[in-house]
């Protein structure tokens, strides 16, 4: 037997009837419908139809061959909404049916369109698009010969849509379920509505189209379905397996793949700041390339001087390795710093001195004591080592110096780095040091210029490192990737680089994770976990708590709002770790909840339940939390500066971060104007669709290729 699998309303019945009428082959079905028993001999038929997921099948043997029928998910959703209104729940609301089918809450609707597609496109050896089937029925069915023998076809017997609608076909309208001809005819008239493609354009409202693309856009694009309704070729790099299974032309294996090294030291750090999220998202976006045996790209990751192939990293991740296991596998253990005498003295001083003194000491480098101690210790040990070495190991010192010089020229003790890679990508300019002597082209990602624009918000060492990185970029005339138009504009001010070396590629977030959560029980559990009050709505502030994020003025605006409206039923939730020179806000009222760090898995629920995200920063290079919130349909109160208006679009309200009254006014609008907030939520969802992992990765590969193929133009 061979499985003929599909999501409902995708053309499975049409395929069964073609096999029956044109090839003389029977089929059965496998389902879990309680009101109709399975045929006892269903597994004896050459083909068995199913809408279930692979894990639900019996027999469960993964060796049984399978064909997957897929249809534009928007047409499927519209068809299911009509089926529910006309057959399953007569008189039900079409709009609500359509919305429910798109969301597929709690794995209803056979797990949801994307889950069904993802599972079966991996399991099946062949994929047939319904649209291709309508254009060439016999040609598409003939592809099944790749996995089994078929009799000679009789194209003159292709079943018509009219036959299906009139209940005259061999399968459909529950003929095999014991229905009479009259009952089948009535059911068929409702079940087979139009049989055409693109009908969603007439019946799917714009806001539900956006909702559909939030939930299912990534899987649609892999199959070649586009936002405008046309069908294109899947990408030969990211969608190689889809090209193969759809029977489309696959590019040949390249003679020599492009080899790229991605510096990824952030992956070994315990924090989860914006740069680490950027690197993690970039790696996840590139992982599909490892599944493409014909890919012209080969990626390695550099983590703590260890080079790890992207394919190996992907394999470990798929096997369920967490960060700690990855560190153990590659010796990437982050050692805890043991504080010495002066380090302990520093802690005592912080405990004893008043907060205003602490601020002054911090601004004037409180680490001075520790640095003196550290430098004395290093100098003493170094002198002792030199003396001992001079007496006992002078020859070895000479040889070691020779090796060090040789390795330094090859790039910070990473042997062979020049000969192994066509390009190196460094996602943070402060991490330039390992590559000061490499000859391969280097691409840097520039996230922001806060160290220049707001130096008071940074430590001296961070300013120095960031500035040194920029000077290295200028010296090398390297290419840079700016994460927003705003950052690109700043780069043109602060860097002497030709325009052709400056590129714009927006950041992106995990599309599968950041989706509006409608399960109230799930959301309530998350709110309880972080101590969020359940008796009132809340505004959410998320991000590292540092001066640039303007938490202080946001809190003052919140307090001002409560002074204006004495009985205001609104709380403020502040989530994030303490950052540069962060002040303590522990003395504020019980209307403000500090959650500390929030796990990534819990963020969508926290966003989804928020009245709005407050992100009134003084400056942002991009602002990932803004995009995360908007994908969860949460509008944003944002700072009217830098990249934020560009990222938010019409999905929020802008405020002057220095004007507490202005921030308060925007909070007030969000709270009291329900219609405005609803419209902003719809606009936030729409705006978020302008950013995607797929788009960013494809643009990045394009930049890589341009640089590698034109090395003399850098």
Largest sheet: 7 strands, mixed
CATH class of the largest domain: Alpha Beta
Q: In the CATH classification, which architecture of the largest domain applies?
A: 3-Layer(aba) Sandwich
Distance between the termini: 58 Å
Query: Structural class given helices, strands, pairing?
Result: alpha/beta
Supply the CATH superfamily name of the largest domain. P-loop containing nucleotide triphosphate hydrolases
Computed Rg: 30 Å
| Proportion of beta-strand residues | 5-15%
Give me the number of helical elements: 30
CATH topology (level 3) name of the largest domain: Rossmann fold
The low-pLDDT segments are 331-339, 406-411
Total domain modules: 4
| Number of E-state strands | 18
> How much helix, percentage-wise, in residues?
40-55%
Write down the overall geometry.
Answer: globular
**Spatial arrangement of strands, main beta sheet:** 8-7-6-9-10-11-12
Q: Could you walk me through the main structural features you see in this protein, from its secondary elements to its overall organization?
A:
By secondary structure, the protein is of the alpha/beta class. It has four domains: 2-245, Rossmann fold; 254-334 and 412-508 and 693-714, 3-Layer(aba) Sandwich (Rossmann fold), CATH 3.40.50.2000; 336-411, no CATH class; 520-691, 3-Layer(aba) Sandwich (Rossmann fold), CATH 3.40.50.2000. The chain has a seven-stranded mixed sheet with strand order 8-7-6-9-10-11-12, with helices on both faces. The longest helix is centred in the middle third of the chain and has 25 residues, at 368-392. The two termini are 58 Å apart. The model is unreliable at 331-339 and 406-411 (pLDDT under 50).
């Amino acid at each position: 037997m061979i499985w003929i699998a599909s999501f409902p309303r995708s053309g499975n019945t049409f395929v069964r009837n073609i096999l029956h009428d044109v090839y003389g082959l029977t089929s059965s079905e496998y389902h879990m419908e309680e009101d109709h028993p399975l045929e006892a001999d269903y597994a004896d038929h050459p083909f068995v139809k199913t809408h279930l997921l692979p894990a639900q099948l019996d027999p469960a043997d993964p060796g049984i061959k399978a064909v997957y029928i897929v249809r534009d998910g928007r047409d499927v959703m519209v068809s299911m909404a009509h089926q529910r209104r006309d057959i399953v729940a007569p008189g039900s609301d079409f709009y609500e049916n359509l919305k429910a089918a798109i969301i597929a809450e709690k794995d209803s609707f056979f797990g949801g369109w994307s889950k069904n597609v993802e599972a079966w496109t991996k399991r099946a050896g062949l994929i047939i698009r319904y649209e291709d089937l309508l254009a060439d029925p016999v040609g598409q069915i003939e592809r099944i010969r790749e996995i089994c023998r078929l009799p000679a076809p009789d194209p003159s017997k292709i079943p018509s849509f009219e036959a299906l609608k009139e209940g005259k076909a061999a399968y459909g309208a529950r003929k095999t379920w014991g229905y009479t001809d009259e009952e089948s005819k009535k059911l068929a008239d409702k079940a087979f509505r139009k049989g055409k493609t693109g009908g969603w354009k007439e019946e799917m409202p714009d806001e539900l189209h956006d909702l559909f693309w939030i939930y299912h856009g990534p899987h649609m694009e892999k199959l070649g379905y586009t936002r405008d309704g046309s069908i294109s070729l899947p990408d030969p790099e990211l969608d190689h397996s889809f090209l193969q299974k759809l029977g489309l032309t696959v590019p040949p294996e390249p003679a020599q793949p492009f080899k790229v090294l991605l510096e990824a030291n952030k992956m070994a750090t315990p924090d989860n700041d914006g740069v680490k999220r950027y690197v993690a998202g970039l790696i996840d976006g590139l992982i599909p390339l490892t599944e493409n045996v014909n890919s012209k790209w080969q990626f390695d990751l550099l983590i703590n001087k260890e080079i790890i192939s992207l394919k190996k990293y992907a394999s470990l991740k798929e096997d369920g390795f967490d960060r700690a296991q990855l560190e153990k596998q590659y010796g990437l253990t982050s050692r805890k710093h043991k504080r010495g005498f002066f380090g302990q003295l520093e802690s005592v001083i912080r405990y004893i001195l008043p907060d205003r003194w602490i601020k002054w000491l911090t601004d004037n480098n409180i680490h001075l004591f520790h640095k003196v101690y550290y430098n004395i210790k290093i100098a003493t040990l170094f002198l002792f080592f030199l003396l001992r070495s001079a007496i006992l190991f002078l020859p070895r010192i000479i040889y070691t110096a020779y090796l060090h010089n040789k390795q330094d020229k090859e790039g910070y003790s990473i042997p062979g780095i020049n000969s192994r890679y066509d390009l190196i990508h460094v996602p943070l300019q402060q991490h330039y040091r390992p590559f000061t002597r490499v000859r391969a082209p280097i691409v840097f990602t520039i996230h922001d210029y806060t160290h220049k624009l707001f130096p008071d918000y940074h430590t001296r060492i961070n300013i120095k490192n960031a500035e040194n990185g920029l000077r290295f970029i200028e010296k090398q005339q390297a290419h840079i990737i700016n994460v927003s138009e705003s950052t690109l504009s700043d780069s043109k001010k602060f860097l002497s680089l030709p325009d052709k070396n400056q590129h714009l590629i927006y950041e992106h977030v995990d599309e599968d994770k950041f989706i509006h959560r409608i399960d109230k029980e799930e959301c309530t559990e998350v709110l309880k976990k972080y101590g969020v009050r359940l008796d009132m709505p809340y505004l959410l502030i998320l991000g590292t708590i540092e001066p640039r994020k303007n938490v202080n003025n946001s809190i003052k605006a919140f307090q001002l709002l409560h002074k204006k409206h004495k009985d205001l039923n609104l709380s403020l939730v502040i989530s994030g770790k303490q950052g540069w020179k962060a002040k303590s806000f522990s003395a504020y009222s019980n209307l403000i909840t500090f959650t500390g760090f929030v796990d990534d898995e819990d963020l969508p629920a926290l966003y989804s339940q928020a009245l709005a995200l407050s992100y009134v920063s003084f400056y942002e290079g991009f602002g990932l939390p803004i995009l995360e919130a908007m994908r969860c349909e949460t509008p944003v109160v944002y700072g009217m500066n830098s990249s934020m208006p560009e990222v938010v679009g019409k999905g929020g309200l802008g405020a002057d971060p220095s004007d507490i009254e202005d921030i308060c006014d925007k909070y007030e609008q969000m709270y009291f104007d329900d219609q405005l907030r609803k419209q902003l939520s719809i606009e936030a969802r729409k705006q978020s669709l302008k950013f995607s992992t797929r788009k960013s990765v494809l643009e990045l590969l394009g930049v890589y290729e341009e640089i590698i193929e034109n090395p003399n133009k850098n």
